[in-house]
Amino acid sequence: MTKSTQKLITLDGMRRDALETLIDSAVRFLAPGTTTEHRNRLAGEAVALLFCEPSTRTRVSFELAARRLGADVAALNENISSRTKGETLSDTLATLAAMDVRVVIVRHAEDGIMTRLAAKLAPGMALVCAGEGTRNHPTQGLLDVMTIRRHRPNLSNLSVAIIGDIAHSRVARSTARALDTLGVGELRLVGPPAFLPRDNEMPGRPINNFENGIRNADVVIALRIQHERMNGNECPDLETYRHEFGLNASRLETLAGKETLLMHPGPVNWGVELDPDLHGWPNNLINEQVHNGVAMRMAVLDWLV
Ligand code: CP
Question: What pTM was computed for the model?
Fold first, then answer.
């Protein structure tokens, strides 16, 4: 996050104290009564949502966060916006700036686009990345570490396993970066070779064996297979993948233990990366992640504006 230029596009390079400030702020937004107290923080400010890829959690939670802080919210529908008539994204930003939009929240499939858009921001306008290609999903990384810390405050004692299609996952990159900056004890990146990241491209130790990857993990973060970011033959056979790397309650309890926190950024493909029997896992935090997402996005908007 760079406050001088008012943008949050990546957690790479973000300092530990900045991450902790945002997490502490988000936790305060969770407390009953703060929504009322902060109702006018963004009063008179306009926030625009520009999602060029599908979303449920991120889009709705940013909209709720902005409204709970008193902002006016304009949600563009990519399919009926002037983008369908050839308008470039930078022209769309300039158009929003001309209407005094203060914050624009963008999701886009193209790696690197946020940096290019940030270079074209009108003075006083803030840009927030709501998911960029395979590289960045900073608010998801923040809400993930916030969720872990509420259950296990001392990250330096924890072993965290991220399992699944890490190669194509912006969530894995942002969450791994946040965990690393906050001093997590051990970070494992677990999946078949085709789903593991290139050497040293992100924090964490790649492990291509399911049992070794999950054994004694305190936190397991599962990911879906991101078919939309793959070409042709990249995806393994789904049944083979489910058999070798799918999680179920019995495997999780036997290898990691009943206390293990289970997380997933969503959407979940039940029956592939997670067996439906994990709905009942005692430390299933998937809905809590979504809940915390609103508070974290309130913290980010409050900080930027
Ligand atoms: N975790 C996440 O980004 O979910 P959505 O695609 O529903 O926003």
Answer: 0.95
